[in-house]
Amino acid sequence: MPSEDCPMRPHRSRPLVPWLLVVCATLLATGCGGESGKAPDIGDTSGKRGGELIVLSAGDVLTLDPGSSNYVYEYQAIHHPTQRGLYGWEPTKTVPSPDLADGMPATSQSGKTVTIKLKPGIRYSPPLQKRTVVSADVKYALERVFLNSVANPYADVYFRAIKGVGAYRSGAATEISGIQTPDDRTLVLKLDEPVGVISNGQALALPASIPVPKDYARRFDRRQTSTYGAHQVFTGPYMIRNDGKGKITGYRPRRRLELVRNPSWDAKTDYRPAYLDTITFRSGNDIELASRRILAGTRQVNGDFATPPVNTLRSALSTRRSQVAVVPSQGVRFVALNTTVKPFDDVNVRRAVAAAIDRSALRRTRGGEALGQIATHFLAPEIPGHEQAGGAKGTFDFMRSSRPDRGLAAKYLRKAGYAGGRYSGPPLLMVSESERPASATAVALRSQLEKLGFRFTLRQFPSSKVAEELCGNPSAKVAICPNASLPKDLFDPQTVLGPVFNGSNIQPQFNVNQAQIDDPELNAGFDIAAQEIDPEERARLYAEIDRTVTGRAYVVPWIWDNAINIAAADVKGVVNRFTAAWDMSYTSLR
Prior knowledge:
Layout: E1 52-56, H1 72-82, E2 87-88, E3 97-98, E4 106-107, E5 113-117, H2 135-144, H3 155-158, H4 165-170, E6 179-183, E7 186-190, H5 196-199, H6 214-221, E8 238-240, E9 251-252, E10 256-261, E11 278-282, H7 287-296, E12 300-302, H8 310-319, E13 324-337, H9 347-356, H10 359-364, E14 372-373, H11 406-415, E15 428-433, H12 438-450, E16 456-461, H13 463-470, E17 480-486, H14 494-501, H15 520-531, H16 535-551, E18 555-566, E19 571-572, E20 575-576, E21 581-582, E22 588-589
Parallel strand pairs: 1-11, 1-12, 15-16
Antiparallel strand pairs: 2-3, 4-5, 5-7, 6-7, 8-10, 9-10, 10-11, 13-17, 13-18, 14-18, 19-22, 20-21
Helix pairs in contact: 9-11, 15-16
Protein backbone atom coordinates (compact mmCIF):
# COMPACT_ATOMS: atom_id res chain seq x y z
CA MET A 1 0.00 0.00 0.00
CA PRO A 2 1.83 3.72 -1.09
CA SER A 3 2.37 6.30 1.58
CA GLU A 4 1.49 9.89 0.82
CA ASP A 5 5.20 10.69 0.67
CA CYS A 6 6.78 7.86 -1.21
CA PRO A 7 4.49 5.53 -3.16
CA MET A 8 7.05 2.78 -3.71
CA ARG A 9 4.54 0.04 -3.27
CA PRO A 10 5.02 -3.37 -4.64
CA HIS A 11 2.29 -4.33 -1.76
CA ARG A 12 0.48 -3.95 0.21
CA SER A 13 -0.16 -1.32 -0.08
CA ARG A 14 0.28 0.60 3.77
CA PRO A 15 -1.92 -0.46 2.77
CA LEU A 16 0.45 -2.40 10.02
CA VAL A 17 2.00 -2.20 17.32
CA PRO A 18 -0.27 -3.90 19.76
CA TRP A 19 -3.87 -3.23 18.69
CA LEU A 20 -5.21 -0.39 20.77
CA LEU A 21 -6.53 3.09 20.46
CA VAL A 22 -4.06 5.78 21.32
CA VAL A 23 -5.34 7.29 24.55
CA CYS A 24 -4.93 10.83 25.80
CA ALA A 25 -1.72 10.06 27.64
CA THR A 26 -0.02 9.51 24.29
CA LEU A 27 -1.62 12.51 22.62
CA LEU A 28 -0.70 15.38 24.93
CA ALA A 29 1.50 16.90 22.25
CA THR A 30 -1.47 17.24 19.94
CA GLY A 31 -3.82 18.84 22.43
CA CYS A 32 -5.97 15.93 23.55
CA GLY A 33 -8.12 16.89 26.51
CA GLY A 34 -10.81 15.29 28.58
CA GLU A 35 -13.57 17.52 27.20
CA SER A 36 -13.46 16.29 23.63
CA GLY A 37 -14.97 12.88 24.29
CA LYS A 38 -13.65 9.36 24.21
CA ALA A 39 -11.92 7.71 21.31
CA PRO A 40 -14.35 5.70 19.15
CA ASP A 41 -14.76 2.00 19.86
CA ILE A 42 -13.65 0.83 16.44
CA GLY A 43 -13.62 -2.81 17.53
CA ASP A 44 -17.38 -2.92 18.16
CA THR A 45 -18.71 -4.69 15.07
CA SER A 46 -22.42 -4.39 15.87
CA GLY A 47 -24.41 -2.01 13.70
CA LYS A 48 -27.69 -0.86 12.18
CA ARG A 49 -28.69 -2.03 8.73
CA GLY A 50 -29.35 0.44 5.92
CA GLY A 51 -28.28 3.80 4.52
CA GLU A 52 -25.67 5.25 2.18
CA LEU A 53 -22.07 6.04 3.13
CA ILE A 54 -19.92 8.55 1.24
CA VAL A 55 -16.15 8.00 1.17
CA LEU A 56 -14.04 11.03 0.29
CA SER A 57 -10.66 10.33 -1.30
CA ALA A 58 -7.87 12.30 -2.91
CA GLY A 59 -6.88 9.70 -5.50
CA ASP A 60 -8.54 6.75 -7.17
CA VAL A 61 -8.12 3.01 -7.36
CA LEU A 62 -5.32 2.02 -9.73
CA THR A 63 -7.17 -1.00 -11.10
CA LEU A 64 -10.53 -2.76 -10.75
CA ASP A 65 -9.03 -6.15 -11.57
CA PRO A 66 -8.36 -8.35 -8.50
CA GLY A 67 -5.54 -10.05 -10.41
CA SER A 68 -3.48 -6.88 -10.70
CA SER A 69 -4.48 -5.14 -7.49
CA ASN A 70 -2.19 -4.55 -4.54
CA TYR A 71 -3.07 -1.15 -3.11
CA VAL A 72 -4.70 -0.59 0.29
CA TYR A 73 -7.39 1.65 -1.14
CA GLU A 74 -8.40 -1.11 -3.57
CA TYR A 75 -8.75 -3.53 -0.66
CA GLN A 76 -10.99 -1.02 1.11
CA ALA A 77 -13.02 0.08 -1.89
CA ILE A 78 -13.34 -3.13 -3.88
CA HIS A 79 -11.93 -6.41 -2.67
CA HIS A 80 -13.02 -6.58 0.96
CA PRO A 81 -16.64 -5.54 0.32
CA THR A 82 -17.27 -7.01 -3.14
CA GLN A 83 -15.18 -10.17 -3.41
CA ARG A 84 -14.34 -13.32 -1.50
CA GLY A 85 -10.92 -14.92 -1.76
CA LEU A 86 -9.83 -18.19 -0.23
CA TYR A 87 -9.06 -16.29 2.97
CA GLY A 88 -9.93 -12.83 4.23
CA TRP A 89 -9.31 -10.43 7.08
CA GLU A 90 -11.89 -10.04 9.80
CA PRO A 91 -11.48 -6.58 11.30
CA THR A 92 -10.22 -7.57 14.75
CA LYS A 93 -7.84 -10.38 13.75
CA THR A 94 -4.18 -10.51 12.75
CA VAL A 95 -4.43 -13.93 11.09
CA PRO A 96 -6.56 -14.62 8.01
CA SER A 97 -9.95 -16.29 8.32
CA PRO A 98 -11.37 -18.88 5.91
CA ASP A 99 -13.65 -17.18 3.40
CA LEU A 100 -14.21 -19.25 0.28
CA ALA A 101 -12.11 -21.89 2.00
CA ASP A 102 -13.74 -24.28 4.45
CA GLY A 103 -10.76 -24.23 6.81
CA MET A 104 -7.09 -23.31 7.00
CA PRO A 105 -4.63 -24.86 4.51
CA ALA A 106 -3.46 -28.42 5.18
CA THR A 107 0.28 -28.69 4.51
CA SER A 108 2.16 -31.94 4.02
CA GLN A 109 5.12 -32.83 6.24
CA SER A 110 7.53 -31.83 3.48
CA GLY A 111 5.80 -28.46 3.17
CA LYS A 112 5.50 -28.93 -0.59
CA THR A 113 1.83 -29.90 -0.88
CA VAL A 114 -0.87 -27.54 0.33
CA THR A 115 -4.56 -28.57 0.19
CA ILE A 116 -7.53 -26.22 0.57
CA LYS A 117 -11.18 -27.25 0.73
CA LEU A 118 -13.84 -24.84 -0.57
CA LYS A 119 -17.28 -24.07 0.82
CA PRO A 120 -20.18 -25.19 -1.39
CA GLY A 121 -22.91 -23.05 -2.89
CA ILE A 122 -21.25 -19.62 -3.14
CA ARG A 123 -22.74 -17.91 -6.20
CA TYR A 124 -21.53 -15.20 -8.55
CA SER A 125 -23.30 -11.92 -9.22
CA PRO A 126 -25.19 -11.37 -12.49
CA PRO A 127 -24.77 -12.33 -15.27
CA LEU A 128 -23.40 -15.59 -13.77
CA GLN A 129 -25.86 -15.78 -10.88
CA LYS A 130 -26.73 -19.41 -11.64
CA ARG A 131 -23.11 -20.52 -11.24
CA THR A 132 -21.35 -21.43 -8.04
CA VAL A 133 -17.65 -21.02 -7.29
CA VAL A 134 -15.59 -24.15 -7.99
CA SER A 135 -11.91 -24.92 -7.48
CA ALA A 136 -11.18 -24.48 -11.20
CA ASP A 137 -12.14 -20.80 -10.85
CA VAL A 138 -9.52 -20.30 -8.14
CA LYS A 139 -7.00 -22.23 -10.23
CA TYR A 140 -7.49 -19.84 -13.14
CA ALA A 141 -7.35 -16.83 -10.79
CA LEU A 142 -3.90 -17.94 -9.62
CA GLU A 143 -2.76 -18.69 -13.16
CA ARG A 144 -3.83 -15.38 -14.64
CA VAL A 145 -1.65 -13.37 -12.21
CA PHE A 146 1.30 -14.60 -14.32
CA LEU A 147 -0.20 -13.24 -17.56
CA ASN A 148 1.44 -10.17 -19.06
CA SER A 149 -2.02 -8.75 -19.70
CA VAL A 150 -2.79 -8.81 -15.98
CA ALA A 151 0.59 -7.55 -14.68
CA ASN A 152 0.33 -8.68 -11.08
CA PRO A 153 2.93 -6.97 -8.83
CA TYR A 154 3.50 -9.78 -6.29
CA ALA A 155 3.05 -13.10 -8.13
CA ASP A 156 6.81 -13.70 -8.33
CA VAL A 157 7.24 -12.87 -4.65
CA TYR A 158 4.69 -15.33 -3.24
CA PHE A 159 3.67 -17.84 -5.93
CA ARG A 160 6.70 -18.52 -8.13
CA ALA A 161 7.49 -21.74 -6.18
CA ILE A 162 4.32 -23.41 -7.53
CA LYS A 163 5.40 -26.22 -9.86
CA GLY A 164 4.98 -25.44 -13.53
CA VAL A 165 5.02 -21.64 -13.27
CA GLY A 166 8.07 -21.37 -15.53
CA ALA A 167 6.56 -23.48 -18.30
CA TYR A 168 3.29 -21.55 -18.12
CA ARG A 169 5.02 -18.17 -18.31
CA SER A 170 7.15 -19.22 -21.27
CA GLY A 171 4.13 -20.49 -23.18
CA ALA A 172 5.32 -24.11 -23.07
CA ALA A 173 2.23 -25.05 -21.03
CA THR A 174 -1.36 -23.80 -21.15
CA GLU A 175 -1.89 -24.21 -17.42
CA ILE A 176 0.19 -24.40 -14.24
CA SER A 177 0.70 -28.08 -13.47
CA GLY A 178 1.22 -27.48 -9.75
CA ILE A 179 -2.30 -26.05 -9.30
CA GLN A 180 -4.56 -29.07 -9.21
CA THR A 181 -8.34 -29.49 -8.82
CA PRO A 182 -9.18 -33.14 -8.05
CA ASP A 183 -12.82 -32.11 -7.55
CA ASP A 184 -14.94 -28.94 -7.52
CA ARG A 185 -14.30 -28.31 -3.83
CA THR A 186 -10.60 -29.16 -3.57
CA LEU A 187 -7.58 -27.10 -4.57
CA VAL A 188 -4.08 -28.60 -4.29
CA LEU A 189 -0.88 -26.59 -4.66
CA LYS A 190 2.29 -28.52 -5.46
CA LEU A 191 5.40 -26.50 -4.61
CA ASP A 192 9.06 -26.76 -5.59
CA GLU A 193 9.94 -25.68 -2.05
CA PRO A 194 7.96 -24.83 1.10
CA VAL A 195 6.45 -21.34 1.18
CA GLY A 196 5.57 -20.12 4.66
CA VAL A 197 3.08 -17.45 3.56
CA ILE A 198 1.14 -20.01 1.53
CA SER A 199 1.01 -22.56 4.34
CA ASN A 200 -0.19 -19.97 6.87
CA GLY A 201 -2.85 -18.72 4.44
CA GLN A 202 -1.59 -15.14 4.27
CA ALA A 203 -0.61 -15.10 0.60
CA LEU A 204 -3.90 -16.83 -0.17
CA ALA A 205 -5.71 -13.88 1.40
CA LEU A 206 -4.36 -11.59 -1.32
CA PRO A 207 -6.76 -10.64 -4.17
CA ALA A 208 -4.99 -13.20 -6.39
CA SER A 209 -7.17 -15.94 -4.87
CA ILE A 210 -10.48 -14.22 -5.74
CA PRO A 211 -12.17 -16.72 -8.12
CA VAL A 212 -12.30 -15.90 -11.84
CA PRO A 213 -14.33 -18.17 -14.18
CA LYS A 214 -11.96 -18.97 -17.04
CA ASP A 215 -14.57 -19.40 -19.77
CA TYR A 216 -16.04 -15.99 -18.92
CA ALA A 217 -12.81 -14.02 -18.34
CA ARG A 218 -10.49 -15.46 -20.97
CA ARG A 219 -11.73 -13.18 -23.77
CA PHE A 220 -10.90 -10.13 -21.65
CA ASP A 221 -7.51 -11.51 -20.61
CA ARG A 222 -6.45 -12.13 -24.22
CA ARG A 223 -6.20 -8.41 -24.88
CA GLN A 224 -2.88 -6.62 -24.50
CA THR A 225 -4.15 -5.27 -21.18
CA SER A 226 -6.92 -7.33 -19.62
CA THR A 227 -10.30 -5.62 -19.36
CA TYR A 228 -11.73 -8.20 -16.97
CA GLY A 229 -11.88 -5.61 -14.19
CA ALA A 230 -14.56 -3.67 -16.08
CA HIS A 231 -16.63 -6.83 -16.59
CA GLN A 232 -15.88 -8.83 -13.45
CA VAL A 233 -18.35 -10.88 -11.48
CA PHE A 234 -18.59 -10.59 -7.71
CA THR A 235 -18.94 -12.98 -4.78
CA GLY A 236 -19.05 -10.61 -1.79
CA PRO A 237 -21.96 -8.75 -0.15
CA TYR A 238 -21.58 -5.79 -2.51
CA MET A 239 -20.80 -5.32 -6.19
CA ILE A 240 -19.83 -2.37 -8.33
CA ARG A 241 -23.04 -1.10 -9.94
CA ASN A 242 -23.45 -2.81 -13.33
CA ASP A 243 -26.01 -3.44 -16.05
CA GLY A 244 -26.58 -7.08 -15.04
CA LYS A 245 -25.12 -8.25 -18.34
CA GLY A 246 -21.44 -8.04 -17.48
CA LYS A 247 -20.64 -4.34 -17.89
CA ILE A 248 -19.75 -2.14 -14.93
CA THR A 249 -21.63 1.15 -14.95
CA GLY A 250 -20.88 2.42 -11.45
CA TYR A 251 -17.30 3.53 -12.01
CA ARG A 252 -16.12 6.82 -13.47
CA PRO A 253 -12.30 7.03 -13.28
CA ARG A 254 -10.95 9.69 -10.92
CA ARG A 255 -14.49 10.68 -9.99
CA ARG A 256 -16.82 8.05 -8.56
CA LEU A 257 -17.14 4.37 -7.59
CA GLU A 258 -20.56 3.06 -6.51
CA LEU A 259 -21.13 -0.15 -4.55
CA VAL A 260 -24.59 -1.68 -4.25
CA ARG A 261 -25.82 -4.94 -2.74
CA ASN A 262 -25.01 -8.18 -4.56
CA PRO A 263 -28.32 -10.08 -5.05
CA SER A 264 -26.46 -13.41 -5.18
CA TRP A 265 -24.78 -13.03 -1.77
CA ASP A 266 -25.84 -15.41 0.98
CA ALA A 267 -25.17 -14.00 4.44
CA LYS A 268 -25.23 -17.49 5.99
CA THR A 269 -21.95 -18.37 4.25
CA ASP A 270 -20.06 -15.17 5.14
CA TYR A 271 -18.71 -13.49 8.28
CA ARG A 272 -19.35 -9.96 6.97
CA PRO A 273 -22.53 -8.26 8.31
CA ALA A 274 -22.71 -5.75 5.39
CA TYR A 275 -24.90 -3.18 7.13
CA LEU A 276 -24.88 -0.40 4.53
CA ASP A 277 -27.14 -0.42 1.47
CA THR A 278 -24.82 1.60 -0.78
CA ILE A 279 -21.26 2.91 -0.53
CA THR A 280 -20.06 5.69 -2.83
CA PHE A 281 -16.38 6.59 -3.18
CA ARG A 282 -15.72 10.11 -4.46
CA SER A 283 -12.23 10.84 -5.79
CA GLY A 284 -10.35 14.04 -6.58
CA ASN A 285 -10.83 15.76 -3.23
CA ASP A 286 -8.42 18.20 -1.62
CA ILE A 287 -7.35 16.46 1.60
CA GLU A 288 -7.66 19.56 3.79
CA LEU A 289 -11.15 20.41 2.57
CA ALA A 290 -12.28 16.78 2.60
CA SER A 291 -11.11 16.32 6.19
CA ARG A 292 -13.10 19.35 7.33
CA ARG A 293 -16.19 18.22 5.41
CA ILE A 294 -16.05 14.77 6.99
CA LEU A 295 -15.65 16.05 10.55
CA ALA A 296 -18.44 18.62 10.21
CA GLY A 297 -20.74 16.63 7.94
CA THR A 298 -22.88 13.49 7.91
CA ARG A 299 -22.57 9.97 6.44
CA GLN A 300 -18.93 10.50 5.42
CA VAL A 301 -15.52 8.94 6.13
CA ASN A 302 -12.03 9.29 4.68
CA GLY A 303 -10.78 6.92 2.02
CA ASP A 304 -7.26 6.82 0.60
CA PHE A 305 -5.59 9.40 2.85
CA ALA A 306 -4.47 7.83 6.11
CA THR A 307 -3.81 11.04 8.04
CA PRO A 308 -5.47 14.49 7.86
CA PRO A 309 -3.22 17.55 7.52
CA VAL A 310 -1.37 18.44 10.72
CA ASN A 311 -3.47 21.43 11.84
CA THR A 312 -6.78 19.68 11.11
CA LEU A 313 -5.59 16.61 12.99
CA ARG A 314 -4.60 18.61 16.06
CA SER A 315 -7.95 20.39 16.11
CA ALA A 316 -9.89 17.14 15.66
CA LEU A 317 -8.02 15.38 18.46
CA SER A 318 -8.84 18.31 20.74
CA THR A 319 -12.47 18.96 19.85
CA ARG A 320 -13.79 15.88 18.00
CA ARG A 321 -11.92 12.98 19.58
CA SER A 322 -14.86 10.59 19.16
CA GLN A 323 -14.58 11.02 15.38
CA VAL A 324 -10.87 10.17 15.13
CA ALA A 325 -9.55 6.59 15.06
CA VAL A 326 -5.80 6.38 15.68
CA VAL A 327 -4.63 2.87 14.84
CA PRO A 328 -1.31 1.10 14.26
CA SER A 329 -0.56 0.34 10.63
CA GLN A 330 2.47 -1.94 11.19
CA GLY A 331 4.25 0.14 8.60
CA VAL A 332 7.68 1.63 9.21
CA ARG A 333 9.17 4.99 8.23
CA PHE A 334 12.94 5.26 7.88
CA VAL A 335 15.93 7.26 6.67
CA ALA A 336 17.61 5.33 3.85
CA LEU A 337 21.42 5.49 3.62
CA ASN A 338 22.83 4.50 0.22
CA THR A 339 25.68 2.08 0.97
CA THR A 340 27.09 2.47 -2.56
CA VAL A 341 27.79 6.17 -1.91
CA LYS A 342 30.69 7.19 0.35
CA PRO A 343 30.83 7.60 3.32
CA PHE A 344 27.76 5.40 3.85
CA ASP A 345 29.72 2.35 2.75
CA ASP A 346 31.23 2.50 6.26
CA VAL A 347 29.12 0.87 8.98
CA ASN A 348 30.45 3.20 11.67
CA VAL A 349 29.46 6.30 9.72
CA ARG A 350 25.97 4.87 9.37
CA ARG A 351 25.85 4.11 13.11
CA ALA A 352 26.97 7.68 13.82
CA VAL A 353 24.11 9.01 11.71
CA ALA A 354 21.63 6.78 13.59
CA ALA A 355 22.93 8.05 16.94
CA ALA A 356 22.70 11.69 15.85
CA ILE A 357 19.12 11.62 14.58
CA ASP A 358 16.45 13.18 16.80
CA ARG A 359 13.61 10.82 15.92
CA SER A 360 11.16 12.60 18.21
CA ALA A 361 11.79 15.85 16.33
CA LEU A 362 11.27 14.10 12.99
CA ARG A 363 7.97 12.75 14.28
CA ARG A 364 6.91 16.26 15.28
CA THR A 365 7.32 17.37 11.68
CA ARG A 366 4.49 14.99 10.83
CA GLY A 367 2.18 15.98 13.70
CA GLY A 368 3.52 14.48 16.93
CA GLU A 369 2.94 11.38 19.00
CA ALA A 370 -0.34 10.46 17.34
CA LEU A 371 1.58 9.67 14.16
CA GLY A 372 3.28 6.61 15.61
CA GLN A 373 5.62 4.99 18.08
CA ILE A 374 9.35 5.70 17.93
CA ALA A 375 10.97 2.76 16.14
CA THR A 376 14.06 1.04 17.59
CA HIS A 377 14.41 -1.53 14.81
CA PHE A 378 12.52 -2.53 11.68
CA LEU A 379 9.75 -4.98 12.63
CA ALA A 380 6.79 -3.14 14.10
CA PRO A 381 4.82 -4.43 17.07
CA GLU A 382 2.32 -7.13 16.09
CA ILE A 383 4.53 -8.35 13.25
CA PRO A 384 5.93 -11.78 14.26
CA GLY A 385 9.57 -11.43 15.32
CA HIS A 386 9.15 -7.94 16.81
CA GLU A 387 9.81 -8.98 20.39
CA GLN A 388 12.66 -11.35 19.51
CA ALA A 389 14.32 -8.52 17.55
CA GLY A 390 14.36 -6.21 20.58
CA GLY A 391 10.77 -5.18 21.23
CA ALA A 392 10.04 -1.54 21.98
CA LYS A 393 13.38 -1.05 23.79
CA GLY A 394 15.61 -2.25 20.97
CA THR A 395 19.05 -3.82 21.07
CA PHE A 396 21.67 -1.34 19.83
CA ASP A 397 23.03 1.72 21.67
CA PHE A 398 22.70 3.96 18.61
CA MET A 399 18.96 3.17 18.30
CA ARG A 400 17.73 3.06 21.89
CA SER A 401 17.11 6.76 22.51
CA SER A 402 14.58 8.82 20.60
CA ARG A 403 16.83 11.84 21.23
CA PRO A 404 20.21 12.49 19.60
CA ASP A 405 23.36 11.26 21.32
CA ARG A 406 26.10 13.32 19.69
CA GLY A 407 28.78 11.95 22.00
CA LEU A 408 27.99 8.43 20.83
CA ALA A 409 27.82 9.64 17.23
CA ALA A 410 31.29 11.21 17.56
CA LYS A 411 32.61 7.93 18.98
CA TYR A 412 31.42 6.03 15.89
CA LEU A 413 32.85 8.69 13.56
CA ARG A 414 36.23 8.34 15.24
CA LYS A 415 36.00 4.57 14.65
CA ALA A 416 35.39 5.39 10.99
CA GLY A 417 38.64 7.40 10.88
CA TYR A 418 37.38 10.94 11.53
CA ALA A 419 39.79 11.87 14.31
CA GLY A 420 37.83 14.83 15.62
CA GLY A 421 34.55 12.91 15.75
CA ARG A 422 33.13 15.08 12.99
CA TYR A 423 32.54 14.33 9.33
CA SER A 424 34.95 16.26 7.09
CA GLY A 425 34.13 14.92 3.63
CA PRO A 426 32.44 16.55 0.62
CA PRO A 427 28.76 17.58 0.51
CA LEU A 428 26.23 14.78 -0.02
CA LEU A 429 23.00 14.67 -2.03
CA MET A 430 19.80 14.46 0.03
CA VAL A 431 16.50 14.12 -1.84
CA SER A 432 13.01 14.44 -0.43
CA GLU A 433 9.46 15.04 -1.51
CA SER A 434 8.46 18.68 -1.94
CA GLU A 435 5.05 18.15 -0.34
CA ARG A 436 4.53 18.74 3.38
CA PRO A 437 5.11 17.18 5.85
CA ALA A 438 7.89 15.28 4.03
CA SER A 439 9.68 18.49 3.05
CA ALA A 440 9.76 19.62 6.68
CA THR A 441 11.15 16.25 7.77
CA ALA A 442 14.03 16.59 5.32
CA VAL A 443 14.91 20.09 6.52
CA ALA A 444 14.88 18.89 10.14
CA LEU A 445 17.14 15.92 9.35
CA ARG A 446 19.61 18.09 7.46
CA SER A 447 19.86 20.43 10.45
CA GLN A 448 20.43 17.53 12.86
CA LEU A 449 23.24 15.95 10.83
CA GLU A 450 24.97 19.25 10.12
CA LYS A 451 25.81 19.31 13.82
CA LEU A 452 28.15 16.36 13.08
CA GLY A 453 29.86 18.20 10.26
CA PHE A 454 27.81 16.74 7.41
CA ARG A 455 26.90 19.07 4.56
CA PHE A 456 24.04 18.33 2.19
CA THR A 457 22.69 19.53 -1.09
CA LEU A 458 18.97 19.14 -0.42
CA ARG A 459 16.80 18.78 -3.51
CA GLN A 460 13.02 18.42 -3.28
CA PHE A 461 10.67 17.10 -5.96
CA PRO A 462 7.11 15.76 -6.29
CA SER A 463 6.75 12.38 -4.60
CA SER A 464 6.23 10.48 -7.87
CA LYS A 465 9.55 11.74 -9.24
CA VAL A 466 11.35 10.84 -6.00
CA ALA A 467 10.02 7.28 -6.05
CA GLU A 468 10.64 6.60 -9.73
CA GLU A 469 13.68 8.65 -10.73
CA LEU A 470 15.66 9.54 -7.60
CA CYS A 471 15.41 7.69 -4.29
CA GLY A 472 13.82 4.76 -6.14
CA ASN A 473 16.45 4.74 -8.89
CA PRO A 474 19.83 3.18 -7.97
CA SER A 475 21.61 4.92 -10.85
CA ALA A 476 20.74 8.36 -9.40
CA LYS A 477 23.28 7.81 -6.59
CA VAL A 478 21.27 9.71 -3.99
CA ALA A 479 23.17 9.47 -0.68
CA ILE A 480 20.30 9.88 1.78
CA CYS A 481 16.49 9.80 1.55
CA PRO A 482 14.72 10.92 4.75
CA ASN A 483 11.14 9.86 3.96
CA ALA A 484 11.37 6.24 2.91
CA SER A 485 8.46 4.15 4.14
CA LEU A 486 7.10 0.67 3.74
CA PRO A 487 3.60 -0.54 4.49
CA LYS A 488 3.23 -4.24 5.15
CA ASP A 489 1.74 -6.61 2.60
CA LEU A 490 0.77 -9.19 5.20
CA PHE A 491 1.05 -9.77 8.94
CA ASP A 492 4.32 -11.52 8.21
CA PRO A 493 7.94 -10.33 8.57
CA GLN A 494 8.90 -11.45 5.06
CA THR A 495 6.75 -8.71 3.57
CA VAL A 496 8.40 -6.04 5.72
CA LEU A 497 12.09 -6.98 5.66
CA GLY A 498 12.38 -8.59 2.23
CA PRO A 499 11.58 -5.59 0.00
CA VAL A 500 14.06 -3.34 1.81
CA PHE A 501 17.04 -5.63 2.42
CA ASN A 502 16.91 -8.61 0.03
CA GLY A 503 19.26 -7.99 -2.89
CA SER A 504 16.98 -9.84 -5.29
CA ASN A 505 14.45 -7.03 -4.87
CA ILE A 506 16.66 -4.22 -6.19
CA GLN A 507 14.82 -2.62 -9.12
CA PRO A 508 15.85 0.04 -11.67
CA GLN A 509 12.79 2.14 -10.76
CA PHE A 510 10.51 2.32 -7.73
CA ASN A 511 13.28 0.52 -5.84
CA VAL A 512 12.45 0.00 -2.16
CA ASN A 513 15.91 -1.40 -1.33
CA GLN A 514 17.26 2.15 -1.30
CA ALA A 515 20.30 1.17 0.78
CA GLN A 516 21.13 -1.16 -2.16
CA ILE A 517 22.01 -4.08 0.08
CA ASP A 518 22.94 -7.16 -1.91
CA ASP A 519 24.74 -9.34 0.61
CA PRO A 520 24.88 -13.04 -0.41
CA GLU A 521 24.79 -14.26 3.20
CA LEU A 522 21.82 -12.05 4.02
CA ASN A 523 20.03 -13.08 0.81
CA ALA A 524 20.54 -16.75 1.75
CA GLY A 525 19.03 -16.03 5.16
CA PHE A 526 15.96 -14.60 3.45
CA ASP A 527 15.61 -17.73 1.33
CA ILE A 528 15.77 -20.00 4.40
CA ALA A 529 13.30 -17.89 6.38
CA ALA A 530 10.80 -17.70 3.50
CA GLN A 531 10.59 -21.49 3.36
CA GLU A 532 10.01 -21.95 7.10
CA ILE A 533 6.42 -22.97 7.89
CA ASP A 534 6.69 -23.33 11.69
CA PRO A 535 5.42 -19.96 13.07
CA GLU A 536 7.82 -19.72 16.02
CA GLU A 537 10.90 -20.67 14.03
CA ARG A 538 9.83 -18.35 11.22
CA ALA A 539 9.55 -15.43 13.67
CA ARG A 540 12.98 -16.28 15.13
CA LEU A 541 14.66 -16.35 11.72
CA TYR A 542 13.24 -13.00 10.68
CA ALA A 543 14.09 -11.47 14.07
CA GLU A 544 17.68 -12.51 13.45
CA ILE A 545 17.59 -10.75 10.08
CA ASP A 546 16.09 -7.67 11.74
CA ARG A 547 18.89 -7.57 14.31
CA THR A 548 21.48 -7.96 11.56
CA VAL A 549 20.22 -5.11 9.36
CA THR A 550 19.57 -2.84 12.35
CA GLY A 551 23.05 -3.51 13.72
CA ARG A 552 24.60 -2.65 10.36
CA ALA A 553 22.48 0.55 10.23
CA TYR A 554 21.66 0.23 6.55
CA VAL A 555 18.65 2.42 7.26
CA VAL A 556 17.48 4.29 10.35
CA PRO A 557 13.86 3.47 11.32
CA TRP A 558 12.23 6.38 13.13
CA ILE A 559 8.48 5.67 13.37
CA TRP A 560 6.29 2.61 13.46
CA ASP A 561 3.43 4.36 11.71
CA ASN A 562 -0.11 4.89 12.85
CA ALA A 563 -2.99 5.42 10.45
CA ILE A 564 -5.47 8.10 11.45
CA ASN A 565 -9.00 7.72 10.11
CA ILE A 566 -11.83 10.20 10.53
CA ALA A 567 -15.62 9.89 10.32
CA ALA A 568 -18.70 12.05 10.58
CA ALA A 569 -20.42 12.01 13.97
CA ASP A 570 -23.31 9.87 12.69
CA VAL A 571 -21.02 7.07 11.40
CA LYS A 572 -20.16 4.06 13.52
CA GLY A 573 -16.84 3.17 11.98
CA VAL A 574 -14.99 -0.13 12.25
CA VAL A 575 -11.31 -0.22 11.29
CA ASN A 576 -9.84 -3.36 9.79
CA ARG A 577 -6.56 -4.29 11.48
CA PHE A 578 -5.10 -5.58 8.23
CA THR A 579 -5.63 -2.42 6.17
CA ALA A 580 -5.69 0.05 9.10
CA ALA A 581 -8.57 1.67 7.17
CA TRP A 582 -12.35 1.76 7.55
CA ASP A 583 -13.88 -1.65 6.86
CA MET A 584 -16.88 -1.04 4.62
CA SER A 585 -18.45 -4.41 5.35
CA TYR A 586 -18.69 -3.60 9.09
CA THR A 587 -19.10 0.19 9.22
CA SER A 588 -22.66 1.47 9.67
CA LEU A 589 -24.69 4.61 10.30
CA ARG A 590 -25.83 5.40 13.83
